[in-house]
């Protein structure tokens, strides 16, 4: 097969259907940008989980005098020194526990004043109203239930809380947004495939006389189909390249510059450029192969004589 003939036919096909080719490029670019964005969102959520789950603690709040008067869980009175020693000793014996930190009522009051000093309630609180607690860091954050089962309902313990529960709500929201992006991406891919099929068929119909002559002189089906397949592949590759550009520009302006989220939100460990660059070959490969395969199957029946 002469490469010059194939390239000339590709150029003719792209020029004849310039409007539809443009629509294919745009739809492929948008769908693949959403695809790459959803992959990066998944990586971002995984990075955040690894970063924050490593920092969360299980808090064992101890009964104080105020709790003994109001909370049925503390009906036996405020926690005693013996009970605190027993809880601390049991925690250190548990294989799932990494470290244990004891926070006194005075320390809890100090931390509250530092974080919520402007709150109207802060002026009415006193140190004796604050709860002592043990801040427990687990070797595996998923093993919270082991600690909760061991200490919930014990004398002197008011409650056992897992900070991971608060993060799970955030991650569920982010995962929901990611699935929404995937749904939009799937819709855009369907639109792109329909445009590719229609573009290829219009191009084949406009050159039906040439393809008929080629068939009569003994040209193979693959030889006849190749220019149309390459047209779709070139349009898809251009769309994939645009999608890669969108991902790079989005990462640059949203995280590093422009919005500069990395500077404004220091609490989030954002994914790096290596994660973005790792997705670009996949985006380009899909941009090239998806239109080519769609064109191949669309033409199999159409060009049979």
Secondary structure blueprint with pairings:
Blueprint: H1 3-16, H2 18-53, E1 58-62, H3 65-70, H4 81-93, E2 97-103, H5 105-116, E3 133-138, H6 144-151, E4 157-162, H7 164-206, H8 208-216, H9 221-256, H10 261-264, H11 273-302
Antiparallel strand pairs: 1-3, 1-4, 2-3
Helix pairs in contact: 1-9, 2-7, 2-9, 2-11, 7-9, 7-11, 9-11
Domain FtsX extracellular: 56-160
Function: Part of the ABC transporter FtsEX involved in cellular division.
Keywords: Cell cycle, Cell division, Cell membrane, Membrane, Transmembrane, Transmembrane helix
Helical proportion, percent range? 55-70%
Mean pLDDT comes to 79
Helix-strand topology string: HHEHHEHEHEHHHHH
Low-confidence stretches: none
Structural class: alpha+beta
Task: Characterize the overall form.
Answer: elongated
Determine the strand fraction and express it as a percent band. Answer: 5-15%
Question: Number of helix segments?
Answer: 11
- Spatial ordering of strands, largest sheet: 2-3-1-4
Radius of gyration: 32 Å
Number of strands: 4
Terminus-to-terminus distance: 21 Å
> What is the makeup of the main sheet?
4 strands, antiparallel
Function: Part of the ABC transporter FtsEX involved in cellular division.
Main location: membrane
Subcellular location: Cell membrane
InterPro entries: ABC3_permease_C (IPR003838), FtsX (IPR004513), FtsX_actino (IPR047929), FtsX_ECD (IPR040690)
């Amino acid at each position: 097969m002469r490469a010059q003939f194939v390239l000339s036919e590709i150029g003719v096909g792209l020029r004849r259907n310039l409007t539809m080719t443009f629509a294919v490029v745009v739809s492929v670019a948008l769908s693949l940008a959403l695809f790459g964005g959803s992959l990066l969102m998944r990586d971002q959520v995984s990075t955040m989980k690894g970063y924050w789950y490593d920092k969360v603690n299980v808090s064992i709040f101890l009964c104080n005098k105020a709790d003994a008067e109001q909370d049925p869980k503390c009906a036996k009175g405020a926690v005693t020194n013996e009970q605190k020693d027993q809880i601390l000793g049991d925690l250190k014996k548990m294989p799932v526990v990494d470290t244990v930190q004891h926070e006194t009522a005075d320390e809890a009051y100090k931390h509250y004043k530092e974080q919520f000093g402007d709150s109207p309630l802060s002026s009415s609180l006193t140190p004796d109203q604050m709860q002592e607690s043990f801040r427990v860091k687990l070797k595996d954050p998923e093993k919270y239930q082991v600690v909760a089962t061991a200490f919930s309902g014990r004398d002197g313990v008011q409650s056992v809380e897992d900070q991971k529960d608060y993060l799970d709500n955030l991650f569920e929201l982010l995962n929901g947004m990611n699935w929404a992006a995937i749904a939009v991406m799937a819709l855009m891919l369907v639109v792109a495939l329909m445009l590719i099929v229609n573009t290829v068929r219009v191009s084949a119909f406009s050159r039906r006389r040439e393809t008929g002559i080629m068939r009569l002189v003994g040209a193979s089906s693959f030889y006849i189909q190749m220019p149309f397949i390459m047209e779709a592949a070139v349009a898809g590759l251009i769309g994939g390249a645009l999608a890669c550009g969108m991902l790079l520009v989005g990462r640059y302006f949203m995280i590093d510059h422009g919005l500069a989220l990395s500077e404004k939100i220091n609490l989030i460990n954002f994914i790096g450029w290596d994660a973005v660059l790792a997705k670009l070959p996949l985006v380009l490969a899909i941009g090239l192969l998806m239109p080519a395969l769609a064109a191949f199957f669309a033409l199999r029946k159409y060009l049979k004589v």
